[in-house]
Queue: 3 jobs
Job 1
Amino acid sequence: MNNIIVYDTTLRDGSQAEGVFFSLQDKIDIALRLDDLGVDYVEGGYPGSNPKDRDFFQKIAAHELSHARIVAFGSTRRADRKAEDDQGLRALLDAGTKVVTIVAKGWDLHVKEVLRVPLETNLEMVSDSVKFLKSHGKEVFVDIEHFFDGYKSDARYALKVLKTATSSGADGVVLCDTNGGSLPSDIFEAVKKARRQVKVPLGIHAHNDCDMAVANTLTAVDAGVTHVQGTINGFGERCGNADLCSIIPNLALKKGLGCLDQDKLKKLTEVSRYVNEVANLAPRSNQPFVGVSAFAHKGGLHVDAIRKNRSTYEHISPEAVGNERRILISELSGNATLLAKTSRHDITGDKELMRKILRQVQDRENKGYHYESAEASFEILVLKTLGKHKRFFDLVGYRAIVERHDGLPVTEATIKINVNGVEELTASEGDGPVNALDAALRKALEKFYPNIKDMRLVDFKVRVIDPKDGTAAKVRVIIQSQDHQDIWGTVGVSGNIIEASWEALVDSIEYKLLKDEERAAQPKATAAKEGPQ
């Protein structure tokens, strides 16, 4: 049994974030990922509010979950209805889940000015709702909305709501910092007081309006909370909810509290990136624990120290949360960085060659190149410097035409390439010149290298290097590509955006072909080394 219960509300509270939309299938897929991660409770939505959430509970019931319990969310009965006649409570029963969560008002201001009922009536609404749901065999959690604001306003009444919920049979009560305006000291004091009032498990649900949601959650645990709520990547209304991707590793790795098995914890980065992808949102590179920059090292002194002892600049092992260390190349790089990045080429003893690579990096960055997000282009640069670069094809020429027909732009690209003495001419249309060039190049290469069908372009960024030159300024294009195994970045720089894009595209495809060739050669090399059996 875990020391701390993890309750995920990405599918309900997280979906209320600006710019986040989950289809029904998205919700099903995310719920299954959360179950595989080892989350204890997955709040699926508000069946009383919309048909999609009602459909979710029907469809998720057809899936056999290994760990998580699905939760339907609602609110206490309306003031003018009996519990048995309340449509919202009926919707919770119809959802068919074994667990339900209802939200109750814990701030006297909301009772008076939002519900506009006497304080005692709010208590009756809480009590009636809990008893009704318990009479139907449900496990019931009560989220006390605005508990901490209510505690500051009228602590006696806020605690009375808490005790009413527990005396009516609630299995757990969750203290909510709904406005996200509390500080850790506020949280600690109120949770300590609440802990002395009730015997059922206490939970915490923190919003991030003061950038304190994770800190407030961990403080609440220190004060006696055993149930934590949050969302993957901190999705949520306004500034978001407490980020489970930070809460979980802090609990497990810093506080030594059981919440996920170690093997499950290693899936955290994968789940974080999966939810971002489903939500069609760019991941936060500097997100703690799971961001691509969380264990990235750039300064030469840092890299030198990391090579000697990883704990010098890493507070945990990246692998513990399924992430990885990255050594960044830039004009700030020193020998230690180059040693780390070129270790597989075994050039440690060649100081002149190391200096040559470093000079090339610094010279190219001075021209606008940028290798932090383009490690594949750096690898190709190293191979060219070593004289080991293999050209998989040569460009004979290309042409991109943009025309306007019936009020819409139409783009066509034509490419002629040479592969081992064989010329190939292809044309393709696209949404723009870069897309058309990419499609034409792939079409030309697929007959020679069918494995490039596995790769796709996942991000395309253009940056003006020197804005004072206006439309004549050089641009830097960063392309991110992906296949079934890896994600890699490449860079191109030119005064012509098409040429810069072409350079990055060529590096991207060459890197794909290079790594596939190396991967295919590895089993053969191993077999040759082992010899006949």
Job 2
Amino acid sequence: MSQKKTKPKYNLWQNIGFMLRLAWKHHKSVIFLMEGETILTVLGSLLTLLLAPTILGQIEQNAPIESLVRAIVFFSLSLLLVYGAKAYIEQNKLFGRIYLREQIMRLINQKAMQTSYENVEKKDFRDASTEACRALDGNTDAGEITWTNLHELQVAILGLIIYLFFLSRIDYLLVLIVIVTAVGNFFISKHFSDQYYAYRDEGRTSYRQLDLYNRQARDPSIAKDIRLFGMKSYLGDIYEAARKTYQDYAKKRERTILWADLVEVAATVLRNGAAYVYLIIQTLRQGLSASEFLLMFTAISGLSTFVVNIFAYLMWLRRNSADLSKTREFLDYPEPFLLDEGLSPVSSDGEYQVELRDISYQYPESEVKVLDHVSLTLHPGEKLAVVGLNGAGKTTLVKLMAGFLDPTEGQVLLNGQDVRTLNRSEYYELFSAVFQQISTISVTLAENVAQQTEELIDEARMWWALQKSGLEEKVQALPHKEKTILGKEVFDEGISLSGGELQRLMLARALYKDGAILILDEPTAALDPIAEKQMYEQYAEFSKGRSSVFISHRLASTRFCDRIVLIKDGKLIEEGTHASLMEKDGEYAKLFDIQARYYQEGVEF
């Protein structure tokens, strides 16, 4: 089913202005080199146009040999200088254009990394991010090829003006025929070009599939599965299906290109035929010299090319403008949080209380509330456990508490201040966290702990965090110690840590940050309950003197907490200490008993 195309937010001229402002700010040479190349290209075309007719005219007039030699030397040196300078520009223009494309990509990456977390969870934001990068994939995409298109358009316009001057002696009917055939050729070719352009998404999709299957076949992370489950034949079949789809696309593409070329040949024959007939008649009637005949015929061919190029490069600029508009629309994506504005969090004694006041939350793509009218307060210095089965809403609750999401209903308050009014970046500084997903970067262990470049790392604090997390001995035993690269994705000398070691690394990161509030969102879900309990008890030791939130679906692992709340189906149904909840013999006690029976000897199910 075809989808209605939305009009780009920014038009062609606005996007050209954006590119020019970007170049003027970051790399002015891009503009100067483009204009210099334009002038040199037109000048080279003009010299080429005049070269043969001038030499031929000298011969027709029986000019002295010295005059003929001077003309040849003049044109030769002029062309040498022009094309030499143009070659220099062509060799150097690419660096600035790539730099500007990288500047746009930097803006996209900054937007993706700094945007409100709420945006990250929206499908349309992720789609917009993908579309934004489309203009920057390579040298032939909008973020860079726009400069080439602008250059060629300027060449075509200047060339058209100059060539019309040389053709002022010709009957305007012939000029009209040339222009009409050129325009007709352009629009017919555009029809086939539009077909080719329409096939692009089909080709891109099948190519991505081929690339994906190629990478999966060589991916070490699934190598064991491929062998153990006999996936070789299956992967081979789906690869062959994707290859056939891409081959079908390539056949349609090549047929389109063939028809476009045939139309261009026909238009060229028609235009040149009309020019030949007209100029031959003029020669017979008015006695045009051979040099004039050659000049006029060459100018007619050049005029047609310039007319076609004006339309063609305007078309390509419009298409590339649509891609640039997608990029700029992503950069303009609205921010629901006050990331760099708003009030600073207030605390007179360095203690913070986080209150969830009658909050509800419903994800944009969902029709069901994940949390439904929940009220909960994290008191200063309190160890709070949030427990419940998978899917109960525990992670969403901690996202709201940490300011990653704003509630659909209700308020999140920090010391009585509505978090919506606070500077969100400063608010995040209050939290240290260890989440379920382990995030590492292919840099040194020290940088993974501190999340800063080496020159900014407090080494004493970093080693303290490693020692408290139980990783110091491991790191000291490595050849490069804390400067050892983590991960083998980039550097061959990189190392891989075990699952338990990665958990300790995440703890070291949280300890290094030393936030006022510690959040642990099921970071040990992959461990058995006994190992998880031991890890949580270790975490508890480091949470002394600060507020802490422990999220788990295993009830026994958080018995050391001051207070436990049970979440079920998005509602807070019970709260209290472990002892009081067991004494109540409610939902918590039932779940605790069920989980505990798995680890009691002699129990049959």
Job 3
Amino acid sequence: MEKKFKRTTVTSALPYANGPVHIGHLAGVYVPADIYVRYLRLKKQDVLFIGGSDEHGVPVTIRAKKEGCTPQDVVDRYHNLIKRSFEEFGISFDIYSRTTSPTHRELASDFFRTLDKNNKFVKLESEQFYDEGAKQFLTDRNIMGECPRCHAQGAYGDQCEKCGSTLSPDELINPVNALTGNPLVKRKTTHWYLPLNDYQQWLEQWILQEHKEWRPNVYGQCKSWLDLGLQPRAVTRDLDWGIPVPAEGGEGKVLYVWFDAPIGYISNTKELLPDSWEKWWKDPETRLIHFIGKDNIVFHCIVFPSMLKAEGSYILPDNVPSNEFLNLEGDKISTSRNWAVWLHEYLVDFPGKQDVLRYVLTANAPETKDNDFTWKDFQARNNNELVAVYGNFVNRALQLTKKYYDGVVPACGELTDYDRETLKEFADVKQDVEKLLDVFKFRDAQKEAMNLARIGNKYLADSEPWKVVKTDPERVKTILNISLQLAANLSIAFEPFLPFSSAKLREMLNMKEFDWSQLGSTDLLPAGHQLAEPSLLFEKIEDDAIQAQIDKLLATKKANEAAAHKANPIKPTISFEEFEKLDIRVGKVLECQAVPKMKKLLQFKIADGLENRTIVSGIAQHYKPEELVGKEVLFIANLAPRQFKNGLVSEGMILSAEDFDGSLAVTSLLREVAPGSEVK
């Protein structure tokens, strides 16, 4: 039996305050969350919508150092920009605060102390990378080196942005400080860890058995993590930007951002409701819903619930409706490459068109798989759906009423079978929309609302009151009465999805009050009701406006391509003695063949002037084996042998040059020399 709740706490993922919000954030988190909250409010349910900026963490410090300012300067600027953008776009938070607030600092510190006091943490010593020149430990994102997978320079300690591989700093080749280029050493440090392994059994029961209704992508990702077995996770970091660790031995350490940030939901609630916040977080009759993107599933379904469970007095999330990613014009949205549609820029470029973007993002919502936003689709959905269907129906119904009855709602006369059929079609719209919104299917719910507009548009087109008025003027009254009732229903049905347009439509209908429970009613506007002056509900978007946006993206792509052709920074200086340790020689390729089941590798038999040797090289995607047989190549002769999983042993490394497009070219000589010749 489904549990009944008295109230609902809705949170949306805290955006990093190191840059603006883009359409990927909107489609993945904020638009669906806002639709759901507006829906609950329409049903007169007790609901609180909590948002805020995540202002700690490495990305903030990296941007601050690049810009030559303080981290506080960065978060102040972007927090205010994000907050204004959300307000103008109509994301209806009850509070949008920040994790640098005094309330948050106090609550996050108290949360840590409670867990520490109750022995919910373990302290572990580990070796981490340290920059002796900068005198600091480095986070994964502050470490850079050569990718062990694709051998691109400039891979970060958590990910190679070139090949997309997830990495750890220990995997990088020649890791350095990403900001200074300084070489790194390993030093011991002690941190507090949350032993997630202690919660493994409980999480398996709570998620895998008790929450099978969660979206497949959420349930599946949680199951994958649980199947692998959970490990202790650090809750502190050696940094100077963040909330200081409130414990003995915590000097020079801060709360790790993943531990600090979700507590922001609670602290923001406390900031809004200092005397009653606990009922929204500790009362079992409160339902907790997290809206997030798929990159946050583990934190909100495994880590944060484990924190709440460890503390002991908090409720747990009832559902975590996570979306997949939204791509842009067929390419992954990337803030670092400026490949995005930024909300604050959209609001300037398309003033008054918040609902158009809300509609398109919901229609293309990546609820079950990654989806794509294109400007042409944006234009088509506006012109062919909002303008040609919804807007066209409303405009004709209001204009005809103004023309024939001075804007007064006519009385409904005798109904035809077609009238009854039409009325029956939209009688169940409330039930249909609610059924979908209750299970977070926002894309389908909006389709149901738009279907109501299609019914109205078809009814008016089929009934042709502009023709019937000449032969049966009384019949026109019934046609327009039904059309106006449909329009009034649309102003309610679209309220969660398109709040600006719904308010505008109600103004034109002169609807002072409305109630969600009236949705589906056939007498929302009584006969004799005076309508206001009609105007266009939506405007056509012309080709030049869309081309301007496409041109902006093309300019970004060209700039990225130009940047990609810029050489990587020179690696840290080495001594001549270090260089002399490398034994680089000329070898002649005697044989070359593909390695079965390893599509990137070629196996070489090299004549090296002494004994022939085998070298395995990852260049199969750049050369056919027959192209290299008989060629002279340069190779490192004194590299330690490397054994592969299939038993092959590589006795050296063939030298190649990587072009800016990622292609590899084997090094060659201007004239032939004997195999085994040394490179000086």
